[in-house]
Amino acid sequence: MNRIKALNRRYVISSRIDGASAGPVVVEAIPDPAGARFDQTLRNIIVSLGEDTVSFEELLSPAKALRWKRLFHAQPVTLDVRLQVLAERVIEQCSLMEGALDDQLRDELSKAAEGVVGNDSGFSDELPAWIDDVGAEECVVVAAHRSDVVELREWLERDGLQVLTAREALSAVSNRSQMYVVGPPVFYPRALATAAVTDEISYLVSDWFRCRKLPRSSFAEFAEKAVDVKTRVRESDAVALVNHPAMEQGDVIEEYVPQPIWGTAGTVTRGPNSDEALARKLYLGGGFAMWLDDGQRIRSLDPSQPVGERVAYMDVESVTEGSFLLLREGASERETLYKAALDSLGHRAADITASQTRWKCRLYDRLLHRRRWSVEDELKALGVKACEQVRAWTDPILVRPKSKQDFRLLLEWLRVPVESTTENAEMLKRALRSESQRIRKELEAIIEYIDLDELERIGYVSLGGRNVGVRGMCATRVLAISHFKRPVARSRTRLLIKDDGGRWLE
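The structure corresponding to this sequence follows.
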């Protein structure tokens, strides 16, 4: 099917969905007594704690993660080691909470966790049967995460069956008849239903999860005529229009989505010193974290791209949860690249280092003896457009301000030889670019041979490499990004650090 025909088909399906009282969008409420018991007990504990939930994060974080995974877990529990690890952690933490938590609630949560890993949900029986009834070649199964896609493919093992993420499903050219979405619709893009690629859409939802509506569109209230999707809910053999007094979308997300443990990381409110940068904390796959500043781009990996085009640089503001970053254990990418670039310059390296040190020391000295705002005002008056970045320019491994004109004006203000200094900086910049390209080529060659499915599943893989430029690098998934920024020493930014505050998000 070509893309024009596929687009026309989507319009036809949408017209059938819009306003239909018994349309093709169905919520299959599947019995899950073990999940229901765990959900109710966890909610009772959260209510009993009131505002004092921070002290119990070591219990609540794995408990929420276990409940979350149960919502999107279709295969038998014996096939999911992660589910068992989460349950064991909850049981362990319950045993450590003696005296701190109501004994009855604590014991009930521990037993409920045992029940989750001791009993399959109805998903593991229903989904394979439905696929076989329709025919694997007619079905699309949509999973919440790439790791879930990999696991479902291995479990279902049906020729012709498509197992995709929501993003992949939305871009697919398909003439299949049935889509099965594993998990509540509120956690998936609304377009899965409103711009469907199949004739029928069924969401598989545990019966204890009461919010069964599609997510709201942020543009719906401004639309002249938004697509009105009436979903049906099937509970056992009963068929009825969804009519639950459901929670608000924001409340659902806040209550059910696992949260990282930020602790007191965001409590600092002062501004940065001259050797600091404002940075966000990122939790990463493999049990790592990193402080990411707002500076230069960062090296990334896109497994969906063809061979030879997977390694690139990403703007810092484009880094999101789910992005894969290529980082170095034990040192920052920038430091290693800077040293490699200097080494490549041979006998010119000493002169360039001295030149860079000269203007940065002058700038640091002026910032040290004057107020920053005074320096910024002087530079602004001279025509320096990015004067608010003046503190960042003292970074030892920053080559120069982004703007060549800003750099020339800064050097004149510092009374540093302009021509020789700019020439040295440009030579260093070219060497950095050359080293970066060399490392990129080697990374592409290495990534061609790693197991990308394994990377998608666990969110982390260590890379090999013969030369210093690549040695010690890894690919890791961004699990969470802090909503706060805090001052961090520049030498600590973009460095991998061991931190398990995001371990239950993987």
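The first helix runs from residue 3 to 17.
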